[in-house]
């Protein structure tokens, strides 16, 4: 069976990798970008580029439901598959297995966390509430001004999104997937609820199954099929900083987060210690929506995030900025994220898009869902 995947961000790449495990599929992936997301870009037209790679599963306040199952499945998939990809490709994919530490402030309530801990225990996941004395001991570089506690989630992870995507693509290629970059979809040929051919700037591509995983690009493509899945662009800005010394204690280097600001340790590079800090959440204005364009990066919102990071960790203040970037996250309009389903009116079109701020985390479960639809025709409520 000929399967065409449109889009090669983390979602499209993971779908291709998962489908490559299914016998009998001839898989092609196209993307309008020249190559998978690079490490040194300053502007990304995808959610993968905007991502900090946080896998926030156990520390989510959700207690049940599809989204929580997808989060757990994502963490478990990466724990299982990344060693396989590394062994197969030789590419080192940075992954922080020291968890996430989320600060709680005077206006936060701890009762919900106290109730969540035993629920997580039944789900074979761990959460801990740390008092300020333990925070001071384990994270002496953090400011505890107005902090009342910390929530530590040792089972959550952080992964480098660009290198992860490159590794997944390389492993999928070894499984026979054909990746074609700098290929832009220009139209489709359809008949009787079937897309039979996709037109591109490089020529037509036949397909028996079409998977649309193109992020924001899914909106115009579904519009051309007269079944629009509306996605809105939400911009995020982040920064990479460099310090001559390591923050905190060497034995404890998780992701630190507070008031939705994240400090991500990257390790030592050329004698300096590097960190990601971010990210803003910038919604399009009415004018942006009317013009069908993404919001422009707001320097004031970025300054607010940076000041919040310095408030959390004053030792970041003298850091040198070595990269400042922005990326676009696709957010479904009027429905939960993400969208994983057969496109209404079509027997052979699957939409897998609109992951908003959790594309990296939810990509594995999305890929499993797409594989399930291809093999079984439908996506049951408990596919994961």
Automatic annotation (TrEMBL):
InterPro entries attached to this UniProt entry: FAD-dep_OxRdtase, FAD/NAD-bd_sf
Highest taxon of the lineage: Bacteria
SUPFAM superfamilies: FAD-linked reductases, C-terminal domain, FAD/NAD(P)-binding domain
GO cellular component: cytoplasm
FAD dependent oxidoreductase domain boundaries: 3-367
Residues annotated as transmembrane: none
Pfam annotation, one family: DAO
Any GO molecular function: oxidoreductase activity
Alphabetical keyword list: Oxidoreductase
Record's keyword annotation contains Oxidoreductase: yes
Name listed for the protein in its UniProt record: FAD-binding oxidoreductase
Highest classification ranks of the organism: Bacteria, Bacillati, Cyanobacteriota, Cyanophyceae, Leptolyngbyales
């Amino acid at each position: 069976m000929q399967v065409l995947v449109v889009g090669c961000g983390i979602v499209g790449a993971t779908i291709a990798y998962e489908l490559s495990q299914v016998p009998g599929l001839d898989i092609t992936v196209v993307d309008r970008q020249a190559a998978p997301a690079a490490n040194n870009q300053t502007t990304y037209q995808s959610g993968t580029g905007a991502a900090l790679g946080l896998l926030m599963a156990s520390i989510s306040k959700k207690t049940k439901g599809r989204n929580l199952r997808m989060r757990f499945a994502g963490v478990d998939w990466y724990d299982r598959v990344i060693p396989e990809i590394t062994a197969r490709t030789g590419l080192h994919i940075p992954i922080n297995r020291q968890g996430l530490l989320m600060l709680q402030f005077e206006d936060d309530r701890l009762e919900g966390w106290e109730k969540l801990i035993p629920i997580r225990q039944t789900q074979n996941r761990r959460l801990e509430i740390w008092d300020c004395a333990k925070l001071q001991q384990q994270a002496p570089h953090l400011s505890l001004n107005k902090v009342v506690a910390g929530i530590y989630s040792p089972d959550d992870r952080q992964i480098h999104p660009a290198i992860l995507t490159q590794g997944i693509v390389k492993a999928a290629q070894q499984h026979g997937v054909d990746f074609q970059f700098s290929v832009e979809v220009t139209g489709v040929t359809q008949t009787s609820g079937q897309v039979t051919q996709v037109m591109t700037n490089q020529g037509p591509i036949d397909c028996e199954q079409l998977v649309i995983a193109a992020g924001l690009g899914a909106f115009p493509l579904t519009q051309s099929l007269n079944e629009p899945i509306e996605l809105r662009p939400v911009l995020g800005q982040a920064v990479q900083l460099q310090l001559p010394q390591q923050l905190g204690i060497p034995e404890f280097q998780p992701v630190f987060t507070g008031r939705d600001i994240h400090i991500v340790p990257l390790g030592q590079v050329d004698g300096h210690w590097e960190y990601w800090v971010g990210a803003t959440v910038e919604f399009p204005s009415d004018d942006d929506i009317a013009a069908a364009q993404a919001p422009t990066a707001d320097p004031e919102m970025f300054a607010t995030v940076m000041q919040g990071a310095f408030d959390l960790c004053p030792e970041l203040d003298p850091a040198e900025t070595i990269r400042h970037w922005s990326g676009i996250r696709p957010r479904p309009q009027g429905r939960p994220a993400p969208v994983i389903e057969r496109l209404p009116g079509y027997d052979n079109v699957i939409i897998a898009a609109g992951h908003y701020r959790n594309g990296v985390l939810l990509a594995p479960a999305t890929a499993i869902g797409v594989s399930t639809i291809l093999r079984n025709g439908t996506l049951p409520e408990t596919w994961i």
